Write the structure tokens for this entry.
Amino acid sequence: MAWSVPEILPTAIYGVAVARATDSFLAGQAWQGIAWLGGLVAAAGLGAAGARQVYSRLGDLVEPVRDDLVRRVVAGALRTGDDSAVARLNRQVEIVRDTFAGLVLVIRSFAVTLVGVLAGLLSLAPMVAAFVVPPFLVGFALSLGVLGMSADRVRASLQADEDLAAAAGMVFGGVRDITATGTEEYAEFLVGEPIEAHAAAERALAKVSALRTLCFAVGGWLPLLILLATGPWLVGRGVSTGTLLGGLTYVLIGLQPALGQVMGALGDSGLRFVITLGRILDTSRPDDPVRPVDVVHGHHVDAHGLTFAYGPAAEPVLDRLDLTIPAGDHLAVVGPSGIGKSTLAALVCGMLTPTGGRLLLGGVPPTELTTERLAETRVLIPQEAYVFSGTVEENLTYLLPDATPTELATAIDTIGATALVERIGGLDATVKPADLSAGERQLLALVRAYLSPAPLVVLDEATCFLDPEAERQAEEAFARRGGTLVVIAHRISSALRARRILVLDGNKAALGTHQALMRSSSLYRDLHGNWDPIVSQLQADQTRAGQTRAGQIQPAS
């Protein structure tokens, strides 16, 4: 705004300088006329310097808007799994960014020009201003009236653009399969209708430009015609030839280009900006409020003949498994490495699709649930916990953005991460993932999962890098949290804390309490015997080393 002030100067004196120079030349005062034109050149140089400073500061205004929109689109896509997010991220965010920058410049330029021209006309000849300004304002008002019709057509164009992007993305993603199966005609049918709809929307949008042309004729050309038609009458009332020429200069160089720019910006870029921004914000906003943690009641899992293999010819990792996990249960899954424990966790969480049998999560196959519904139903923490470069609070509240300070403090204390959060620098400190140990990353991820509104929690060796005492505190916290807890156990202590234990052993599986399995499962007895020395050695090593910070002890392989 400050640098717009010198930019107004040449606009304001254009007509005055031309008028005074013309009258000076007609009166035989050539040097005076040249001086007026020289002053106009100097003012133009000053205005160019102001315009350069305006452009150099535009990025500071525009780029933060783009960054915020990208964050919103990505967050919405992660929550809903909407394929149209690709179009929003690749195209619509850039439309908003570019049009926002253009609108700032055009509207600012229009305001600067209008102020400068009015000041110049009033100082030159108020009578000329009376013939020029009213038709200009009428044309501008008419152009604003066309915006309503334009908005509907721009909205239809954007919807057609999203539909086309989704259809084309689906077909391009399967182009090799389409070619192999000879289904090119069907693929053409899939994208043909969205292409026609997009073309029709663009043609309808183009018709609006004809109305804008009429509005521009009223506001941009009608003042010029009126001034030319009334020229003899104005000269007869004492208006000099130079003054009349100065008025024409204001119309041709000032008002007419400014009106054309602002009409084009508001009628095209402006509508795209408002509608595209509205679509991004609408699709990035959660439809329903996140459920608070205190309403979690658990979620049951039913598996009947569950089978999964990593390929058509591969041996099944899980073969005809029958399993029921009632709501509110605490189940530990144990077995040799590679037996299918993590595969079972991925199937329960909807990350893999069974190759046989049936798996129901709350009565519905997990793979049929939307991404948003899955996020509300279950939370999975894998062995390699994920944290991102943001504040500690952003990392912890990612699954419950509206967590209260009390809920957050309680979760941190309950999981046992208070010392870690303080060492990092508090909730507002920035997390640097590379500076954290594997155990520290697991602690942050465990707090995040604890805060999640999901009633089903699956810990897939999510505490394997914690010392036994930190692991005990975290698992007992989840057991008291409410809901259903499934722990893929790597220590016998995790199994002993569970209400029930599932032992996976190739094509066989055993389910029961610790006491029952010690009597009935030879594999469980072997696992129990192998685990005991490891646990004892870890605890002894920790005591001797005096290590107290979670994440320093890593279990033996």
Observations:
- The beta strands are 301-308, 318-325, 330-334, 356-361, 378-381, 456-460, 484-488, 500-505, 508-512.
- Confidence is low (pLDDT under 50) at residues 286-297, 532-557.
